[in-house]
Design a protein that fits this description.
Helix content is 11%, strand content 35%. By secondary structure, it is mainly beta. It folds into three domains: 268 residues, Rossmann fold (3-Layer(aba) Sandwich), CATH 3.40.50; 116 residues, Trefoil (Acidic Fibroblast Growth Factor, subunit A); 349 residues, Methylamine Dehydrogenase, Chain H (7 Propeller), CATH 2.130.10. The longest helix has 19 residues. It starts with a strand and ends in a 12-residue tail after the last strand. InterPro entries: GlcNAc_PI_deacetylase-related, Integrin_alpha_N, LmbE-like_dom_sf, Ricin_B-like_lectins.
């Protein structure tokens, strides 16, 4: 065996220094590494590692060779940007374990190497899967031509592909691949086979190597878990690739678009090649229904599963187990209850658990990427009126979307959609929301008056041009970009109109950019304050605006996470002499890193009162810690617990928006306890007293409900900025038009229907921004 022979010989860059480590990534397609593995690859590269990326598949299902070349052109451009060097590569066709491989190495950063095997691709949602035929059926696959088409294709069998990958993996000190432990078509069959082949070969190495398995399509509706700066860098690289493959960067800068769904997310399971695993290791998980906020639950032998409040029990754990079939066939999975070990079967449109049978057609389901579940009769599983329902799989809403991860309030970082303040100076609050732009990483800011018939007005346009040929980051330290920005409304200049503060990372600390309100629009950003390294955005849990003097100028209170899983409080604002200063004002070992700050005393006095709400020590209750400022000092009071109905995972908080010189109430929403569906809204004007049920809203979805209690004169309304339950196609998890609903709270009878509904020309998923780091 000759591992590396150049064919034909070409001039090569100097051998890279890989003493720190070599990370080898093996994926199916030429965008899998950029969308699902990143930022793991760039982090290793910037730490001095060598990185080798193996793409098994060339092009896509049935693609011509020119599309293979186009995708490789895109991945060259993307990796040059990832490395921060010119898009100039050494190219050669080499032989690894006797088989031809097209090798690319960056000239100015030779620690970056791409290996293109150019095998034919399989169908994403049913159809021929060549890689599966090679691995399971003993097929021999002919690759696309090598070089630029002038070198003959290779021919791979299971043994020769294994030998080629083994030669590549022998030098790895870290291995990345995709998720082997799932079934088509939750993830692309090519993804699954690429991962299983990689695991099988890696386990044959004579040493233990850390290996990570990255989940692909399902993460699109899992909680965001990459920081803003990580997401911005990843979005740059992915958009660079798609500027060539398809030419549409909007699918990356948009969040609800299918390729944009994965930019802010990265989920992986870490293991070791020393742990020998079978081809499939099923792990039970929930099946969470997005619209009803309920989980599929086993009701026992012979009975139909039900929807029930999610509680983490074994009755709500399910496994998709593969069934023997020809690679690429649908109806290839059984839905197995972890509690009973039985399979869910469909007979005459009815579901029931029964003993599992390998070849029983009534037990063969097709779980689909993007959250759809097709029953054995090819209908879709969903929810209507709080119960399971089967129907044809066209014109579906979120009621027919399922997730293997339940989005809980403490983990779901899609937090803030609208802010409410008096930005016009007319004595009435307006809704302010930020819209992600599709032409780059910028954003636009809209103001919506809360009266029927009013249309939103764009008060500020923040276009950030994207250059796919650049090798530097699109978002510099003086550029306001959506992913890394945090937003706060408040009257920071004392003119009676609320201004917009945009908070971004800069110079190792935090930049506070003030967009002053003129009453008709927001002025261009001006740097209001630059913090030092003691309050970096990467540790800033939350920012809120407050005022505690007759000057009426708002200051910012922020909670900084500490290394010991705690938090400390800082302020930024006018120190009374006209200078903006930062100051650490309160440390208390009772503050947790995942606290939520709420202001409960309005401006206009020399004191300020706040609450920190956070999970109690046992995690099952919510602890409330009051603190405040009076007589020139900050102090904290005694901790109390909210009643058990308020669970940390499902309780959402807001303070109401009172006029000046009034105490604020705390508004809390939880899923309805009396009946399935909807939410209960509670109010607490005195934290020492029990909260009072304000209203039950059977039609408000918990997942999208963010409450705000608004006051205009003597009128009080409960407002929700949420998503319309729109019809979604089968390649979108989310979407829907953003909607503002208002309920008349002054009229206590019959107020479970909105008095006003404003349809906004905005995509709900595109307006959600990061309010807090951890919840």
């Amino acid at each position: 065996m000759v591992p590396f022979l150049v064919f034909p010989a070409t001039a090569q860059a100097a051998a890279p220094d890989c003493r720190i480590g070599t990370a080898v990534t093996v994926v199916a397609h030429l965008d899998d590494d950029l969308l699902f593995v990143e930022p793991a690859i760039s982090e290793r590269l910037h730490a001095g590692w060598c990185v080798t990326v193996v793409h098994l598949i060339g092009g896509a299902n049935g693609a011509r060779f020119d599309y293979v070349q186009k995708r490789e052109e895109g991945t060259r451009l993307a990796y040059a940007r990832l490395a921060g060097v010119a898009n100039d590569w050494d190219e050669s066709t080499i032989r690894i374990a006797g088989e031809p491989v097209f090798e690319l190495r960056l000239k100015q950063q030779p620690r970056v190497r791409l290996l293109e095997l150019r095998l034919p691709g399989g169908a994403v949602r049913g159809g021929r899967v060549p890689l599966g035929l090679l691995w399971d059926q003993g097929a021999t696959l002919t690759t696309y031509p090598m070089g630029h088409g002038e070198i003959a294709p290779g021919r791979y069998t299971r043994d020769s592909l294994s030998a080629t990958l083994r030669s590549v993996l022998e030098g790895a000190t870290r291995i990345y691949t995709l998720n082997p432990d799932t079934v088509p078509f939750i993830e692309h069959p090519d993804h699954i086979y690429a991962a299983r082949i990689t695991r099988h070969v890696a386990q044959s190495l004579a040493r233990a190597v850390p290996i990570s398995y990255f989940v692909t399509y399902p993460i699109g509706n899992w909680p965001v878990n990459l920081s803003g700066e990580q997401a911005q860098r990843k979005r740059d690289v992915a958009a660079t690739y798609f500027s060539v493959d398809g030419g549409d960067v909007a699918q990356v800068f948009g969040e609800y678009e299918w390729n944009g769904d994965w930019v802010q997310r990265q989920y992986a399971h870490d293991d070791s090649t020393a742990h020998v695993r079978p081809d499939f290791v099923g792990t039970p998980s929930v099946l969470f229904n997005a619209a009803s906020n309920r989980c599929l639950a086993s009701a026992g032998n012979g009975r139909e599963p039900v929807l029930a409040p999610c509680n983490g029990s074994m009755q709500q754990q399910w496994t998709w187990e593969p069934r023997t079939t020809y690679p690429g066939n649908e109806h290839d999975a059984a839905l197995v209850s972890a509690a009973t070990g039985q399979c869910v079967a469909e007979h005459d449109g009815k579901l029931a658990e029964a003993r599992c049978e390998q070849w029983e057609p009534s037990q063969r389901w097709t779980p689909w990427d993007f959250g759809l579940i097709f029953t054995p009769s090819r209908r879709c599983l969903g929810e209507e009126d709080g119960r399971l329902n089967l129907r044809g799989s066209a014109s579906l809403t979120t009621r027919y979307r399922w997730s293997a991860l339940r989005p809980a309030w403490p983990t779901d970082l899609r937090l803030a959609g609208a802010m409410y303040e008096d930005v016009t100076g007319r004595g009435a609050p307006s809704a302010v929301y930020v819209q992600r732009r599709a032409d780059g990483p910028g954003f636009d800011v809209y103001v919506q008056a809360l009266q029927a018939g009013e249309r939103p007005v764009r008060w500020y346009a923040n276009a950030v041009p994207f250059d796919s040929r650049a090798i530097t980051a699109t978002c510099g330290e003086d550029t306001l970009c959506f992913d890394s920005a945090r937003f706060v409304l408040g009257d920071f200049d004392g003119d009676g109109r609320a201004d917009l503060m945009v908070i971004t990372p800069r110079l190792g600390g935090t930049a506070f950019w003030l967009l002053r309100s003129t009453g008709r629009d927001f002025e261009a950003p001006a740097l209001w304050f630059q913090s030092d390294h003691r309050i970096p955005t990467g540790r800033a849990q939350q920012y809120i605006a407050f005022a505690n003097s007759a000057l009426m100028r708002r200051r910012i209170l922020l909670a900084m996470q500490t290394s010991g899983k705690g938090a400390e409080l800082w302020t930024v604002g006018d120190d009374g002499t006209g200078h903006i200063q930062q100051a650490r004002v309160l440390e208390d070992d009772r503050f947790r890193f995942d606290l939520r700050l709420l202001a409960v005393r309005a401006q206009g006095t020399d004191s300020a009162s706040f609450l920190a709400v956070q999970p109690a020590s046992n995690g099952a209750r919510i602890a409330v810690l009051p603190f405040g400022f009076s007589n020139g000092h900050w102090h904290a009071g005694s901790t109390s617990l909210l009643p058990p109905v308020f669970q940390p995972a499902t309780t959402k908080f807001s303070t109401d928006h009172h006029p000046a010189d009034a105490n604020n109430a705390i508004v809390m929403t939880v899923p309805r306890s009396s009946e399935p569906g909807g939410i209960d809204v509670w109010e607490s004007s005195d934290i020492e007293a029990a909260p009072v049920l304000l209203v039950s809203l059977p039609d408000e979805p918990w997942q999208d409900s963010s409450p705000a209690l608004l006051h205009s004169g003597s009128h009080t309304t409960l407002a929700f900025y949420r998503r319309t339950d729109a019809i979604l196609d089968n390649t979108h998890f989310s979407g829907g038009q953003a909607t503002l609903l208002q309920y008349d709270i002054d009229r206590r009878e019959g107020n479970d229907r909105p008095e006003a509904q404003l349809q906004l020309p905005a995509i709900y998923s595109e307006t959600l921004w990061l309010e807090r780091l951890s919840q």
